[in-house]
Amino acid sequence: MKYLESEEFNLYPKKSITAKHKPKILILYGSLRKRSYSKLLALEACGILNHMGAETKIFNPDGLPTFDFDRSVNHPKVKELRNLSLWSEGQVWSSPEVHGNITGLMKTQIDWIPLTLGSVRPTQGRTLAVMQVCGGSQSFNAVNSLRILGRWMRMFTIPNQSSVAKAYDEFNDDGSMKPSEYRNRVVDVMEELMRFTYLTRESSSFLVDRYSERKKV
Q: Does the pLDDT value for residue 2 go beyond 50?
């Protein structure tokens, strides 16, 4: 995207933490519309994260079966999503708000990522940034729901978040986001996600260690 060539990226802070490798960030979006604004917002976040030094992967939910607990557990899209979650050190969830909440597609993706896979936890200890797009005035219903889910998945959901009102006015024809306070907030959120990921990823197993679980061993 052309905006990556902008001088504004010189304003992004350089990391002051010695990193063994780039932060691994998985990005999920919650709409299959031809011009999906949650996907465009996810792509915008992806470009910003890449410029900040992350390694990113975006999951395409097209073809993911409806969550049915175990009947479709061997479906290729389910396996792909779970492997990407295991690969990740942080995640970004971007959902439209429909009927005052996240979409069924967004919930289906999260439902297919279990709390445990044997002794492995695909989400526990990972950082999380939440974002939403609105068709009208600004709302926070979707990001609030995503926060609840993130907490349930035992993730470290960062304090900052993004909610883009009247999303149809906020993107250029090429899909890039127009300069605005909404876009500035997206940069803020990605910056904070990077910082929290750097700070927690090496200590995540210690931070999520629980007495009740140790007692069962």
A: no
